[in-house]
Design a protein that fits this description.
globular, alpha/beta, six-stranded mixed beta sheet
């Protein structure tokens, strides 16, 4: 199965939750509450992380948490461009997290593209973000910190 991934609610906006969703034949969405994002960013700052790296790290862990339970069914992932110019870094760290979890994945399984508002992934993420539907999973601080 080939899926697209989109985000609603930027990682860097700590006033709102972030929803990451994938969709194609199947759809799935996780929500990272604003309070969890704030705690995670605070923890990352304590470890010396700064600038864009903070947000990239949190975004990558979110992608990992979104995809890890579904990798058996997914053959290709198109990720909406959220951090232009950082695609190689995102792919590298995402692959490292997947491999560390014992999940076989290759660079060829991931790509980046502006997927636009007509994507089913966009619809799913926005629907959860606005509260029209519930997330499939709400991510906790502990789940994210385990992946630092």
């Amino acid at each position: 199965m080939r899926v697209e991934v989109d985000q609603s609610g930027k990682i860097g906006d700590t006033r709102v939750p972030t929803v990451l969703a994938f969709s194609d034949g199947e759809s799935y969405a996780i929500m990272i509450p604003a309070t969890v994002k704030r705690k995670c960013l605070h923890k990352l700052r304590q470890t010396g992380e700064a600038g864009t790296t903070l947000y990239l790290k949190l975004f990558i862990i979110g992608l990992y948490l979104l995809l890890k339970e579904h990798t058996r069914d997914i053959t290709y992932v198109t990720i909406d461009v959220e951090y232009p110019g950082h695609e190689a870094k995102i792919k590298e760290h995402l692959l490292n997290l997947l491999r560390r979890a014992g999940i076989t994945a290759s660079e060829a399984n991931f790509g980046f593209q502006y997927i636009g508002k007509k994507s089913k992934a966009h619809d799913k993420a926005l629907s959860v973000f606005t509260g029209a539907t519930r997330p499939d999973k709400t991510i906790s601080f502990r789940e994210i910190v385990r992946e630092f």
